[in-house]
Specification:
Length: 148
């Protein structure tokens, strides 16, 4: 692992299939990632090689960000996304853990990219991103499990 990536694990107290329905389909990301993601377009069905756009809010405004699903394995519940604009990536794999779900998440920027930032600010960004996403996933799964 380089300074330009971060890997983190969490145990989500929800069944693995419920968590996979959120993680394995980028169309669901606005439901749980946070208000930074306003929507996803161009992805009728998640599949390897599929490209899609994500509407993202940040302090400078709303932007369209282009992504591609590099890998998607329904059997082992793993997804690898790449942002085509920033060269960043997200890898996420889920494992059943006695009725709960073990999540292994990695965020980063391409290792082979000579222009990739390798400083502490970049590392801190990926640490915060992974922690924020895992916390949001845990909260969304808990909310979805509550009786109406």
């Amino acid at each position: 692992m380089t300074v330009g990536s971060w890997r983190q694990q969490a145990l989500i107290d929800s069944p693995v299939q419920q968590v996979w329905e959120m993680v394995g389909d980028p169309n669901r990301y606005p439901d749980w990632v946070g208000e930074e993601i306003a929507g996803v377009t161009g992805l009728p069905t998640p599949e390897p090689g599929a490209a899609f756009q994500q509407l993202t809010h940040d302090p400078s405004g709303t932007h369209v960000v282009n992504f591609q699903i590099e890998e998607l394995d329904q059997d082992v519940r793993a997804i690898h996304l790449r942002c085509l604009d920033s060269r960043t990536y997200l890898r996420c794999a889920l494992t059943e853990a006695r009725g709960a779900t073990f999540v292994d998440m990695e965020t980063g920027i391409d290792e082979g990219d000579p222009d990739a930032y390798r400083d502490e600010l970049t590392r801190d960004f990926f640490i915060r991103l992974a922690q924020t996403m895992l916390d949001a996933l845990d909260g969304a799964c808990a909310e979805e499990s509550r009786p109406s």
